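Schema walkthrough. Field components (list of strings):
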Amino acid sequence: MTDVRAAAASGGPVPAPLPMAIPKAQFDWRPLALLAAVAAIGLPLIGSPSTWVTLTMAGLAMGLIIFIIASGLTLVFGLMDVLNFGHGVFIAFGAYVAVSVMGGLGAWVGAPSLGLNLAAVALAMGAAMLVAGGIGYAFERIVVRPVYGQHLKQILITMGGMIVGEELIKVIWGPQQQALPLPEMLRGAFLLGDAAVEKYRVLAVLIGLVVLAALLWVLNRTKVGLLVRAGVQDREMVESLGYRIERLFIGVFVTGSALAGLGGVMWGLYQQTVTPLIGAQVNVLIFIVIIIGGLGSTLGCFVGALLVGLMANYTGFLAPKVALFSNIGLMVAILLWRPKGLYPVTNR
Amino acid sequence: MIRRLLSHDLPRSRWLALALLLIVVGLAVAPFVFPGSKALGVAAKMLVFIVLVASYDLLLGYTGIVSFAHTMFFGIGAYGVAVASTRLGEGVAAVVIGVAVALLISLALSLLIGLFSLRVKAIFYAMITLAVAAAFQTLASQLSDVTGGEDGLTFKNPAWLSPSFEPFETPLFGVTVDGKIFTYYLLFFAAALLFLLLLRIVNSPFGRVLQAIRENDFRAEALGIRTVVYRTLSNVLSALFACAAGALLALWLRYTGPDTTLSLEIMLDILLIVVIGGMGTLYGAVIGSVLFVLAQNYLQDLLRFGATALEGVPVFSNIVSPDRWLLWLGVLFVLSVYHFPSGIVGRLRALTHQRRPPT
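Field assembly_structure (string):
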């Protein structure tokens, strides 16, 4: 340092400073610790370890399904600043498409072969993602595009879009509840000692982890993902660097709605019935999740979804009457700790 | 005198004034001109919705806060009257106590929710109120020993408001005057009073500050206005008026349940009416409520007519079926957000002002 100052003082050329190692950003482990803490606190409160294992598995499965649905929504808000209160419509369409597909593949669903069952479920998921993605594209063009930038109108219009979507579902499939039974080999549970872990929940956790891994890989290791993350931080800058950010928006919106369709299929199989109100019911939960996680952050959405899933299952067992309030209480507590959510990404 | 009554907030459009006059006169003479219990029920519902939507317009149109917890306060008012009448026995005392307790609970809750809006921004606030309202609805159906659960509470009104009370033996203008008519006029005068009170509030310096906060809250803060205080006050006032509307509905229906007051459908209806009528103009609440309640009750008849005409056509008959009237209302909603950005009232005012030659 003194040579630099000496060189500058003497008026001569200043040598370039020595390259110092750029300090790595510290990974924020506290929210993950919170997640582990909630799971750990559950054990003494519940009492028996086997029940705890069952409930935790159920919580993880539910949480991962909600994560699949909410991940699209948080990216859409983070990148496009679009408040989509009608995300539930993609969930509902996904679930109903699954009803049709699995109803049509009744032979595969009823067969005692894991391969055929999984194939039927995979086909249902694929079809649901396609249909939900297509509807997402239409939704973006017709409902969302004219109101970019006006939050109030976005809230109103997307809610209106959800009403129209729900009514269209009633027109096509009828207003009554429809059953979505699990395939033959996915019923029942594994027995780990005393704890019963449902087979479907294990499948849901696996699929959820695959989606999480795929999302994190795309966001962190591909150029498209880099653009999405950059756009979430500063949209105008990305635009000024010459990238067609509108195409990116449409892509993210369609992907988000396809993911919601997938989540709808899984939620429908989790509940084993679908009603036209399925979208509105899950809507509240996904909003709580993305607020807890921080708008725009995928990891935050993941942690938030798992927290919500665990809380819902633990309180559903311990004190069923306060189940929904417990999630709101969790949201309030986290907002008091971090007003922008667990992993705030955007500066909005 | 009319100017002072309307707090100097005149319709400013002869079409709007005409429409409002028609509505007021129609509602005033409804029991005698539109006989039948359905028509009277429609008129009473219009009155309740006018107060409810006007109070929401105070929050959304004048302060710019989107809140989905409005039906919660509506429900608190209705349940207050219902629980008091069921627990304390019917009578004026029970109703008064019920309304007072409901107002206090609404005050406390709205204060809490309003102060919480300190920490979070507008989008968060909307989502939080959505979650709180959903949770409250679940709570109401779960505390079944107090609230009657999913079945709700049926109760009797005070003696002079119940349908069996018939003071005059001869029919007046062809209609037998009974307690139902008295209840209707109680609703009418209460709704008129509450609406005029709301007009007074929005046309006062307080109302001006709310509009300033809506337009640019940073600037309002820079001018020295404590936006938190005003936002919370707006929240509280809006909740109190919604609570009063709930009490009126309970008195009319003599029944309260989670579906009649707390459901998300009602919240969406309120949003629809505010947007279609015109945000930021209380008259929009009047026009919108009347049109909406008429549509809700008579559009189905219109659709039924269309359905019988298209019977047999596979998909279209389903779309025009009277059960799917909400679909058409949703489409109308989306269209009106695009084409009527200032609602019907805005359109009517623009229509009138277009005719004046430019000075």
